[in-house]
Amino acid sequence: MPLPQDAMGDSPLSRTPIPVPAFFKDAECSFSRKRQGRPFCYTLPPRPPAKSVPPISRIFPHRYQSWSQPRPQSVSFRSPEQQPLHSRLYDESRRELFFEQCFQRICKLGRGSFGEVYKVRSREDGRLYAVKRSMEHFRGESDRQRKLAEVQKHERVGCHPNLVRFVQAWEEKRRLYIQTELCEASLQQHCEEYGPLPESKVWAFLCDLLRGLHHLHQRHLLHMDIKPANIFLSSHSTCKLGDFGLMLELGCGSLSDAQEGDPRYMAPELLDGEYTKAADVFSLGMSILEIACNMELPKGGEGWQQLRQGYLPPEFTASLSPELLSVLTAMLEPDHKKRATVDSLLSSPVLRRVAMWRSFILNSQAGINRALSVCQWLLSFLVVLWMGVTWLAHWLLGCWNSSSKTPSSPASTPTPLIDSSMSSDWEDDSLGDDVFDLPVKAASPRSLPCILQYHEGTGDLHTQNNIQNSPEVFPCPSVGNTSTPRNPSPECSIRSRKRSLLCNSPNVSRISQESLCSDESSSPSTCHSSRFVDEDCQHAFEPKNLLSMFENVSMEQD
Ligand SMILES: Nc1ncnc2c1ncn2[C@@H]1O[C@H](COP(=O)(O)OP(=O)(O)OP(=O)(O)O)[C@@H](O)[C@H]1O
Ligand SMILES: [Mg+2]
Ligand SMILES: [Mg+2]
Question: What residues bind ATP, as annotated (predicted)?
Answer without folding.
Answer: 132
